[in-house]
Records
---
Amino acid sequence: MRTFTMTVDGVAVSSPTTFDVIDPTDETVLASAPECTDEQLDHAVAAARKAFPAWAATPFAERQAALIAMADVVDAHADELHRVVTAEQGKPLAMAAAEVAGLSHWLRATAALTLPETVNEDGADRLSTTRRVPLGVVAAITPWNYPLGQLSFKLGPALLAGNTVVLKPSDLAPLSALRLGALLVEVLPAGVLNVVSGTGDLGARITAHRGVDQISFTGSTRTGRAVMANAAARLTPVTLELGGNDPAIVLPDVDVPAVAEALFWAAFANSGQICLAAKRVYVHADVHAEFRDALVAYAATVRTGDPTEEGVGLGPVSNRRQYEAVLDLLKDSEDNGHTVLTGGSPLGRKGFFVEPTIVDDPPEDARIVQEEQFGPVLPLLVYRDVDDVVARANAGDLGLGASVWSADPAAARAIGDRLDAGTVWINEVMHLSPLVPFAGRKQSGVGAESGLEGLLAFTSPRTTTVKR
């Protein structure tokens, strides 16, 4: 069994104890990862603090070049990395390959950004300018659904801005990030990027650490609240990308088969384990029956199984904890007599497999509608009135993404402008760009990632005034 190591101050570090990482395809132990001790965490933060002054003073063009070099390393080891992602997370190989390629793309595109300098006043009496300066040591904490993809929003911008980083991947899928940390010592000075792993309270220890100057966290809203509470003790700045219960609204003029296929993948890609996945699909009553039948028919063409096999579109749920949460939601629908159009149960084989499940028109207050499923489960809901569907789509505490589907983009845009979400797509969903800010509203997050706003999140303004 392979044992992975942490990277601290440019050196591979093991630990007195390890924890098992489980393959979600067959529930066997895939590898072991180090359990970071208090002393090792202190060492990682101290290494980042020691490296910060020199890295912050490194010319911006050289930091841009470092991101390009990081992307080159990712590309050179892409085959190894995407196979590790599939093994630990469960997504099909092609999707894992796209995730790794996305990290490389994000690093390259981020390297093209620049930090603004503003001249506030330039007169006879004084010159006043504002520059953006790095914050210091960034704690980056990432989830298990995209173990490398989520690094796209954190590593490149944080390092380009001049910060150093202590990264903690999820204990449920830490291997690819640990391996990446080991590879990047080739191109980054010691201490600039440190990667630690562990279970239990490691995340809490990092977010409460006195040596951390900023926290960038992606995960559940519940955990995000705990991160923010830890940060509040020292007023540590936070960027939080949290949960979503994203509505999709289908107008009656759509090309039903095409939109049904698009929304299948919008809901079920990565077995539904995407914060921006369509998690509630509202279909106009005039096309509900046709859309329902088309969606079920398309679902029957998609194969669920071993993600390393050719032709498999959906792999397992990524871990036992989430698998049991999905089964609990399905049990609730069964207990409440909801109409299950397809799926509704485990696949009947070893591993955390759940059949793609579509539930037809459950009550709006059903758990399957009100809660983020984060699994291969989709409620299909009926509406007749635009005002009603907008109100239903906007209900709840989350506001990450939303989409509207119509043959008339202007009509769809008019509805989209009324939706309380950080990102609204018209006739597509989940399209992100390293040049476009991505943020949540309500309890879906604090701050922004990607684009110039995402880069600025890793800085603070410094104004200098010169008296003439």
Note: The chain has two domains: 2-242+444-467, 246-433.
---
Amino acid sequence: MIRTLIALVVCLLVAGPAAAQEWATKMFNVTSHDFGTVARGAKTQFRFQVKNIYEEEAHILMVHSSCGCTTPQVTKPDLKTFETSEIIADFNTRDFLGHKSATLTVKFDRPFPAEVQLRITGNIAGDVVMQPGSLDMGTVDAGKGAERKLQVTHSGGDKWQIVDAKTADPHFEVEITEVSRNGGRTTYELLVRLTKDAPVGMIKDQLILVTNDPKGLELPVDVQGRVLSDITISPAQLFIGVVHPGEKVTKKLLVRGKKPFKIIDVTCADKSFEIDAPKESKAVHLVPVVFTAGDEPGRVSQKISIKTDQGDVVQAFTAFAEIVKLEDSAKPARE
């Protein structure tokens, strides 16, 4: 839903100052996260998603943490209607040990002053060290695959073991090798392999190391990277904007290849969208997408496919817009 924030805040002010700030909380999908038990040195991060569901533009003035164990940052402070941002919480596993918690206070100054509190908790295990702190697969060409190594060291007992490594992504394979076990210190090396059939797109997953330690049975390892095809489209979700009936809006789409290519066909079932693709062969195409709003209010969403002369793979993106009548612009509209 697009909500008109001014009317909402007026209603909430009647209920009291605390209730008047609920408009900001409604933009967050969650407001707390527990990391569980994590290894010392592990890169441990959580992203709180923020989405502006209002017609008015929102601005995040600042965010601060109540504890040095967590460092926050904002990916995008200015949010127009339907735009999203993230509050990134980095858990400091290098300088802190044991159970830690922090409150992140997110301050808004537009369109109204408000604060949202996000809570972080976790347990940093001092007897387990991970190197590197996370696995970055990097940028991988489609069909190539990739490998990365992870070393995990435990101190304080000879019976500690890594018994399994789990992931929800079927395109990862893990080989676990015990490297040494001596004087209460145990070291494992894990070979993490991204398979050649991994799909195109961002890699954002978590590898779970299962141990025999009841106090820290599972240890998470963040895995990231990107699989690139020969042709990429940016953005994959093209927001045209909030428009009025009959209004014409043009947005630009970036279509990039590893070598010069031609766009030979564009398929779109909705005649409200017009795409006049360049005819020449080049490595980067800036493609205009023209949308003409119809008479009916509501959300318009359309998947648009682009075919090039680089094989049979068809690339696609989604374009969407919100049509709002002039006399109804102050009323809620369905997203």
Note: The domain at 134-228 is CATH 2.60.40.10 (Immunoglobulin-like).
